[in-house]
Amino acid sequence: MLGCNAYTADQCLEPLVVPKDFRVDIKQKIEPHKAHFIWESVDTSEDKIRGNFKGYKLWYWKSTEGRHKWKVVDIIVDVGDGYDLPDVRATIEGLPAFCALRAQVAVKNSHYTGPPSQTIDFHTPEGVFFN
């Protein structure tokens, strides 16, 4: 395994698990530059993650531009004591207003990102961006 000499074989492989039921969190309103997402927690055991669980990676892109212009957001999850929640929630800010968007989420370990969830479509309302 070229490039993995200093690591165990498990740390040089993609995670096996895929986040399920990825969706916009309907309990929270989508704002012009912010959306809330929810998905089922994955099994974080080393044999499923193939290394150390490092959270999730969420991609989003304008529907009209395609994946080649996607933005990536790392979602850090603390798997310490009490990590037994059935769902993961994340809020993404800085989205373009009044825009049709698509998104996916995947599990990441120390070195790789696993296969992505299903793609979801959502739309941000009109708004003005203030810095």
Distance between the termini: 46 Å
CATH superfamily membership, which one? Immunoglobulins
What average pLDDT do the residues reach?
A: 88
CATH topology: Immunoglobulin-like
Which CATH first-tier class would you pick?
Answer: Mainly Beta
In this structure, how is the largest beta sheet organized? 4 strands, antiparallel
How are the elements arranged and paired?
Layout: E1 23-24, E2 34-40, H1 46-49, E3 55-62, E4 71-75, E5 87-93, E6 99-108, E7 120-124
Antiparallel strand pairs: 1-2, 2-5, 3-4, 3-6, 6-7
What does this molecule look like?
- This is Fibronectin type-III domain-containing protein.
- Residues 18-127 form the Fibronectin type-III domain.
- It comes from Tegillarca granosa.
- By secondary structure, the chain is mostly beta strands.
- The protein has one domain (15-124): Sandwich (Immunoglobulin-like), CATH 2.60.40.
- Helix content is 3%, strand content 34%.
- The chain is globular, with a radius of gyration of 16 Å.
Task: Pick out its properties.
Ig-like_fold; three-stranded antiparallel beta sheet; globular; Fibronectin type-III domain-containing protein; 131 residues; FN3_dom; FN3_sf
Concise synopsis of the structure shown:
By secondary structure, the chain is mainly beta. It has one helix at 46-49; strands at residues 23-24, 34-40, 55-62, 71-75, 87-93, 99-108, 120-124. 3% of the residues lie in helices and 34% in strands.
